[in-house]
Every structure is written in C-alpha cells, then in structure tokens.
C-alpha cells in the first residue's frame, strides 16, 4: 500500500524487510498474543503481525491513512483500527485489560513523550519493541558515566536491550538521522510502585538538574538546602558528594531514594 507521508505528523514509513523481521523476531510473537501497534502506517509491519498474532489493534492518528489501511486489511478478521492519538489512549480499555505487547516506529517529535507514557501506564504491556531516533535510543541505553534521567527511569522500570540500528535509507521518505530498535520488558519485581513513582522522579529531577555540577551541588540548589546537609545524606548513602548524577548506578539511586529521600525532601531543611 502506497501513501504520501505527512511531514506534520512525523511520518517515515519503514521499507526494509530485514528491519521488519528483526522487530518481529524481538517481539517473540505467539498465536496467543495481542499486539497493539502504534502508528501502523502503510501496514508494512502490520501484515506479517496478522499472520502470527491472535489479534492486532492498530492506533493511527492520520484519518486518511487509517481509512486506506482499513480497506487494505479488510480481509483480516483479527485486525481492528482505532483512529486516535496514541499518547492519550486508555490502554486498559483498548485491550480489555488483557495481556498485550506494543510495537511501534515512534515519530521522532514525540518519541520521548510516548516512552514516558508507556512507562507510566496503569495497565502495562508485557513487552515493547520500539523504534527511536538513534540518539534517543543511545540515551535510553546509556550506562553509568553518561546516564540521564530518561536512562535511569527507563532502566529502573524495564529490562532494555538494543535490537538493531536502522539506517535512514530504510525509510520512505528517508529522515535526516538514523534510528534504533529497542526491546523493553517491564519489571515485575522493582521497588518502584504507583505510590512512590512521583517521589522517585522528583529525586531524579533534583539530581540531574545541573548536569555539569556535582550531585551535592545539584541537590542543594534545586532543593534549597544547605550543601553540608546534602553532603551528609550522600555520605550516609555511600555516595561520593563530588560525583555527578550521570555516574550513579541504578542500585545507588535506589539506595539513595530508600535511605535519603525523606532527609533531602523534608520541609525542615
């Protein structure tokens, strides 16, 4: 199915069978799976998914493209299409609270927002295979020494791995940058819960508020607390106050949150 991409919607359609195969292989699809595909586009990925999965639900913002896709796939009784903005969909309602997997070639302009949306869903997918601009993928997969807030929160909540890098020539039309496919599996045994997620994000925002400064300086500035108090909390949590936030391991963030959050964020400081 051919369709003229809408630049305003960030549309770049994947046109490389090897990339599609890599994404499908990473999703470990069985005939019992429910797949939610964000932005099915021209159906290049959708058609092989329909031959493998029990059901595929597409969510497409472009009404003209959705109509063409519905006509193109009308013979598949395991396909349904929702014409909405996937950033604001109730995924529990869409999937009838069934177990599901998400697959998507995310538009560059909203990829980070989409990722945060998926991470914060009440009814989380069991697995996600997502394509990002390579720079964003590198940030998500970063290791201590170059981590950012997005790296930490994603890796705290999910096991993540790079599936493959995708050259810009694999798309039609070709974007200006390369992409990467990432596989994410939400953790079920993490210390983050619905009740402490916001607080943990507040700690990360404070720690990463001034990336070029030491973590003690960043915390002191953003929390408006005397620097010696922040240094004391960090020392108590076995974290060198002269380190930068980007160098901390996930386990160190967890320990700092569990043992230092109340001291750093109490109103009496």
Please explain how this structure is put together.
The chain is built from eleven helices and nine strands. Strands 4-3-2-5-6-9-7 form a seven-stranded mixed sheet, sandwiched between helices. Helix 5 links the parallel strand 5 and strand 6 (about 125-135). Helix 9 packs across helix 10 (about 225-235) and helix 10 packs across helix 11 (about 250-265). The protein is elongated and about 70 Å long. It has about 270 residues and is α/β, with parallel strands linked by helices. The chain has two domains: about 5-185, Vaccinia Virus protein VP39 (Rossmann fold, 3-Layer(aba) Sandwich); about 195-265, rRNA adenine dimethylase, C-terminal domain (Helicase, Ruva Protein, domain 3), CATH 1.10.8. About 40% of the residues lie in helices and about 15% in strands.
* Structural class assignment: alpha/beta
How many structural units, i.e. domains?
A: 2
CATH-scheme architecture of the largest domain: 3-Layer(aba) Sandwich
The overall pLDDT average reads 90
What is this structure's SSE topology?
Layout: E1 13-14, H1 17-27, E2 34-38, H2 46-50, E3 55-59, H3 63-72, E4 79-82, H4 91-94, E5 101-105, H5 111-119, E6 127-133, H6 134-140, H7 149-157, E7 158-166, E8 171-172, E9 179-186, H8 197-207, H9 215-223, H10 227-236, H11 250-265
Parallel strand pairs: 2-3, 2-5, 3-4, 5-6
Antiparallel strand pairs: 1-8, 6-9, 7-9
